[in-house]
């Protein structure tokens, strides 16, 4: 079973970045890199595809706008048109504020909801943290080991020459 | 050796390493509560009790407990509502607008400013509820299919827009704040020593593991949330101003209101941020994170927005004079020289004149003075709303309905008590959540600083060896 990973632990983002780049170039199967903060460019180096959450945000925004317009139009022009000083009951500009606010509301909640779903995040989830120091001051590069394919010695070498503080093996989360 | 010229002052001083950041910012959470925390919390809770008492009294007795009358129907409560909503705006401005402008100094202050936003909006909402007189009917402005004769809310009314604006603002701010907190909650979880802490922080960390894939998505949603919060914050106070501006009351019926209210909101919000942080940075020992440079930047914003508000006051006067509408002209003359002249000149002094001292470097770099100024700004902005509401209303179109407004002790208690509500929540926040966004701060520490820390450790070892040799 290919369920092992080799971890390289670093203490600064620059060497983490450099080593990750080298590993990806060298054809290693980089599982993930765990960092205490967003290291810019690391996602690109790892080949993470641009997230489609922005598209989701747009779709939710349009849903919000559509719901607001439907609600307002139905309530004030179809279901119970009110005669206020003989003015028409369907007036465009007055509907802008609520339409805008609902657009924002749907975008925020929809997008954040999708974010939680794609990351499989939910309240109370117990996660198997790769190393508890990654939320403090350590950067961990996790590389999948494929039996008979991955040259573990060479990999260890890259980790160490890149400035790893420690290199160890770990069983993958099941 | 190359020398990097410091183009800007460093944002985090003291050569902090990543671990230092975690230790420094989590210290107030992880150690036993200090005496100063207990003192502040107890005091706030006592004032909160005043709020609970006065609000309960109002609900039980009715709005007759207040000094409002047939002419001045909006007074202390709406003044306080607008005041607190305004306070909230700095939080969103700091975290959203400054994020879009790539102002990195925001990172030390955005967490506490966003917390302030949420607590201030809670205070504001409480005034709307008590103003209703019958808070159990607070769901009426919500467009629900109903049994009251198919009557829907009036979608042309700014008061209904306000319901949508404030509730959207509150919930989106809460989401934005919580998203920012998740990585830091995970940090606390991974350092937790007691079972309860581990359970609670684990629950709210939602299984955060620091993966780069997650961070990639996280950055994207943070950017979009900032992008949508920016027009949101502008719209919220614009809509609050339309509660006044769309009416026909002289002194309210002004097209300048939306930008003027937004500038005022940012002004008062920064005033409150300064009040909290000038003290907080010393008490929580965060001088290296909230540096004099941060205070200086905030003072500049206070000066800028104060001047914008002052310009709006003067423009209003000019427009009233130029319009040739005698009701409008009288409303403004009465505002400055009528029976409430003292509130008008308090407002002018605190908001337009006082912040001009921030042109002087000394004023921007002396913490006690900044604190004093921030209080003056808060007072001035409270009076601005009082002036707009009470002076415009108290002299109606018909002189026979002219009247004066004096707040009762109940109203004053609710106002003072609302600070208790705000500060109780703020003290709880300081005790249980990190007041500075650690994940963001770590990303702006120069990496050679992190190395520098190790360098120092190494030096330390050398020194010891050296001593041994000498000894």
Question: How would you describe this structure to a colleague?
Answer:
The complex is a heterodimer of chains A (174) and B (471). Chain A is α+β, with helices and mostly antiparallel strands and 174 residues long. Chain A folds into two domains: 4-49 and 128-171, Alpha-Beta Plaits (2-Layer Sandwich); 53-118, no CATH class. Helices cover 45% and strands 14% of the residues of chain A. Chain A is built from five helices and four strands. A four-stranded antiparallel beta sheet of chain A has the order 2-3-1-4, with helices on one face. In chain A, helix 3 (53-79) runs antiparallel to helix 4. The longest helix of chain A has 27 residues, at 53-79. Chain A is rod-shaped, with a radius of gyration of 25 Å. The mean pLDDT of chain A is 87. The longest helix of chain B has 34 residues, at 158-191. Chain B is an all-alpha fold and 471 residues long. Chain B is built from 16 helices and no strands. Chain B has one domain (18-135, 170-444). In chain B, helix 2 packs antiparallel against helix 14 (409-432) and helix 9 packs across helix 11. Chain B is globular. Classes of the chains: A alpha+beta (174), B mainly alpha (471). At the A-B interface, strand 2, helix 2, helix 3 and helix 4 of A face helix 1, helix 5, helix 6, helix 7 and helix 15 of B.
The largest interface is: A-B, 66 and 67 residues
> How does the major sheet of chain B shape up?
none
CATH class of the largest domain in chain A: Alpha Beta
The poorly predicted ranges of chain B are 449-471
β-strand number of chain A: 4
Low-confidence stretches of chain A: none
Described by the principal axes of the CA atoms, the overall outline of chain B is globular
Give the integer mean of the pLDDT values of chain A: 87
Radius of gyration of chain B: 25 Å
CATH topology of the largest domain in chain A: Alpha-Beta Plaits
The ordered H/E elements of chain A are EHEHHHEHE
Count of individual beta strands of chain B: 0
Q: Helical content of chain B, roughly?
A: over 70%
Number of domains of chain A: 2
* Structural class designation of chain A: alpha+beta
Q: Strand portion of chain A, in percent?
A: 5-15%
* Multimeric organization: heterodimer
Sheet bearing the most strands of chain A, described? Answer: 4 strands, antiparallel
Q: Classify the beta-strand content of chain B into a percent band.
A: under 5%
Q: How many angstroms does the end-to-end distance of chain A come to?
A: 12 Å
């Amino acid at each position: 079973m290919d369920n092992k990973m080799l971890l390289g632990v670093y203490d600064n983002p620059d060497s983490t970045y450099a080593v990750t780049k080298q590993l990806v170039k060298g054809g290693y199967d980089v599982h993930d890199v765990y960092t205490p903060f967003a290291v810019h460019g690391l996602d690109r180096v790892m080949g993470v595809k641009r997230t489609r959450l922005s598209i989701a945000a747009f779709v939710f925004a349009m849903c919000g706008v559509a719901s607001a317009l439907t609600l307002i139009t139905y309530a004030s022009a179809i279901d119970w048109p009110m005669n206020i000083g003989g003015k028409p009951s369907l007036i465009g500009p007055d509907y802008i504020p609520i339409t805008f606010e609902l657009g924002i509301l749907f975008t925020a909640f929809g997008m954040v909801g999708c974010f939680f779903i794609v990351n499989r995040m939910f309240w109370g989830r117990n996660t198997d943290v790769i190393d508890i120091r990654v939320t403090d001051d350590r950067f961990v590069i996790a590389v999948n080991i494929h039996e008979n394919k991955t040259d573990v010695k060479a990999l260890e070498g890259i980790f160490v020459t890149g400035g790893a503080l420690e290199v160890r093996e770990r069983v993958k989360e099941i | 050796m190359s020398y990097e010229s410091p183009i800007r002052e460093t944002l985090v001083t003291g050569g902090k390493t990543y671990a230092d950041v975690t230790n420094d910012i989590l210290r107030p959470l992880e150690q036993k509560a200090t005496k100063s925390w207990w003192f502040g919390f107890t005091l706030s809770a006592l004032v909160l009790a005043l709020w609970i008492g006065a609000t309960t009294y109002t609900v039980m007795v009715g709005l007759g407990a207040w000094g409002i009358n047939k002419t001045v129907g909006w007074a202390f409560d709406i003044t306080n509502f607008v005041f607190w909503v305004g306070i909230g705006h700095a939080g969103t401005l700091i975290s959203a607008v400054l994020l879009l402008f790539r102002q990195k100094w925001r990172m030390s202050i955005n967490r506490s400013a966003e917390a302030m936003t949420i607590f201030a909006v809670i205070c504001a909402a409480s005034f709307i509820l008590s103003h209703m007189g019958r808070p159990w009917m607070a769901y009426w402005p919500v467009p629900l299919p109903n049994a009251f004769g198919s009557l829907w809310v009036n979608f042309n009314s700014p008061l209904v827009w306000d319901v949508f604006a404030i509730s959207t603002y509150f919930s989106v701010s809460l989401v934005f704040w919580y998203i920012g907190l998740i990585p830091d909650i995970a940090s606390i979880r991974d350092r937790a020593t007691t079972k309860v802490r581990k359970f609670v922080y684990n629950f709210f960390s939602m299984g955060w593991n620091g993966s780069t894939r997650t961070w990639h998505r996280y950055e994207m949603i943070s950017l979009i949330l900032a992008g949508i919060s920016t027009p949101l914050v502008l719209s919220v106070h614009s809509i609050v101003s339309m509660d006044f501006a769309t009416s026909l009351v002289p002194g309210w019926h002004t097209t300048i209101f939306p930008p003027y209210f937004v500038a005022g909101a940012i002004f008062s919000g920064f005033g409150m941020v300064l009040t909290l942080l000038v003290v907080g940075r010393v008490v929580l020992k965060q001088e290296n994170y909230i540096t004099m440079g941060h205070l200086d930047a905030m003072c500049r914003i206070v000066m800028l927005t104060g001047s914008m508000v002052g310009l709006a006051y003067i423009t209003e006067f000019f427009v009233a004079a130029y319009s040739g509408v005698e009701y409008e002209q009288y409303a403004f003359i009465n505002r400055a020289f009528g029976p409430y002249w003292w509130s008008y000149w308090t407002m002018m002094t605190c908001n337009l004149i006082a912040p001009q001292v921030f042109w002087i470097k000394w004023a921007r770099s002396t913490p006690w003075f900044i604190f004093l100024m921030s209080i003056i700004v808060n007072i001035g902005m409270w009076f601005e709303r009082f002036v707009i509401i009470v002076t415009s209303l108290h002299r109606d179109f018909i002189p026979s309905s002219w009247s004066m407004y004096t707040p009762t002790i109940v109203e004053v208690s609710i106002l003072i008590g609302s600070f208790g509500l705000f500060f109780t929540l703020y003290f709880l926040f300081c005790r249980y959540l990190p007041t500075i966004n650690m994940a963001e701060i770590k990303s702006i520490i120069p990496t050679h600083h992190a190395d520098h820390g190790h360098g120092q450790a190494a030096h330390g070892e050398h020194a010891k060896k050296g001593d041994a040799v000498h000894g």
